[in-house]
Specification:
repeat, PROP1-like_PPR_dom, mainly alpha, 21 helices
């Protein structure tokens, strides 16, 4: 304890209120540094922790810093009045930036109700007014909590406030959080309307917002609209999610557009995979582009992209329709090399090719090749 007393003496030399009788000198130094009784940085002396350790149960002024306030709000339960009590009991006057930080903290905990109580407590304080950042933080908190309807309600309030106070004008963060909340909540039309409003306000989306808007297009199956938004992303130097390119290729009106998207995604730095190639293969087959289908198989092998039986069957379908038996024999040989087992679809297109070609010799070759692919009993 002699060492503790010595440290306490030095800590009183320049700053701090007189050492209270109920707290040891070493503990008082930890309190001033924002530590707990054991000196651990992760423990903060909030109002509840400090109550009873000062004469009259008050909170020492030195204990009230931003970290203490954050800890007090963090441990206060929403709906009990404790959040407002902690903020009003604070011995320094939080400004807008401090409230933005507190609301954001609640949002990271996915506690939109507590975030709303912090926001309401802020509105009840003198000389502190909501602004773009506090509104956006509250909208983000609602979004991260999955409360898209609450987020939209705050947004409407924000726009009303902006009519008389330009400091409440929505920004990129505001719209991004709203669009994400609506897209995640399945409110695809609302997300797309917000995107249009965002553009009308002259606000440029970031990559995350673009991704959410594309998710809304995908969810509502508005493929043509998604293509337009994807073009906007590319003009900004962004790339879309690989799964979206695959969906767009699979739902394109023609093979030309599918091929364009396939090449564009690679030029944008997005790698293709087996799913993307299968979607393109289906588009080429639908367009009767059997030669390109064969080229695609070759490119997939060169790039070490796995080729499954479904992709091979789509290529066989493209070849069977035009009776390209030689190429079909080549594909069947690749299936054999890959040790894949043919299914009914494989045999169906082989038989179809035999009927189209009307060449008994080729038909025997095709059937024999399929027979070689049968699993050994």
């Amino acid at each position: 304890m002699a060492m503790a007393a010595g440290r306490g003496h030095r800590s009183r030399r320049k700053c701090g209120p007189p050492l209270p009788r109920s707290i040891g000198a070493l503990e008082w130094r930890h309190l001033r540094e924002g530590r707990g009784r054991a000196g651990r940085k992760s423990e903060f002396w909030g109002p509840e922790a400090c109550a009873g350790v000062m004469p009259g149960g008050g909170v020492p002024a030195a204990a009230w810093d931003m970290e203490t306030l954050k800890a007090a709000v963090l441990h206060a339960s929403a709906g009990t009045g404790k959040v407002e009590e902690a903020i009003k009991g604070c011995t320094f006057r939080p400004r807008e930036q401090a409230f933005t930080t507190l609301i954001d903290l609640c949002g990271r905990m996915r506690d939109w109700k507590k975030a709303k109580e912090v926001f309401d407590a802020m509105k009840g304080m003198r000389s502190v007014r909501p602004n773009t950042y506090t509104y956006s933080a509250l909208i983000s908190a609602c979004s991260s909590s999955g409360e898209w309807s609450q987020a939209l309600g705050v947004f409407e309030e924000m726009k009303r406030a902006a009519k008389s106070d330009p400091s409440c004008k929505p920004n990129q963060v505001t719209f991004g959080a709203l669009i994400t909340a609506c897209e995640r909540g399945g409110m695809f039309d609302a997300a797309l309307r917000l995107y249009e409003e965002m553009q009308a306000c002259g606000i440029s989306p970031d990559h995350a917002t673009f991704t959410s808007v594309l998710g809304a297009c995908e969810g509502s199956r508005q493929w043509q609209r998604a293509e337009g938004i994807l073009d906007q992303m590319h003009s900004r130097g962004f790339t879309g999610p690989p799964s979206l390119y695959t969906e767009l290729i699979a739902n394109c009106a023609g093979w030309e557009k599918a091929l364009e998207l396939f090449l564009t995604m690679q030029a944008a730095g997005c790698d293709v995979d087996a799913h993307t190639c299968r979607a393109l293969m289906a588009s080429l087959e639908a367009g009767g582009m059997w030669a390109m289908a064969m080229d695609l198989l070759g490119s997939m092998q060169e790039a070490d992209i796995p080729i499954d039986l479904e992709t091979y069957n789509i290529a066989l379908k493209a070849l069977a329709k035009v009776g390209r038996c030689d190429e079909m024999l080549e594909v069947l040989g690749r299936i054999r090399e890959a040790t894949l087992e043919p299914d009914e679809t494989t045999r169906e297109w082989v038989e179809f090719a035999c009927r189209v070609r009307r060449d008994s010799g080729r038909a025997r070759q095709l059937r024999a090749q399929v027979g070689k692919l049968q699993p050994v009993a």
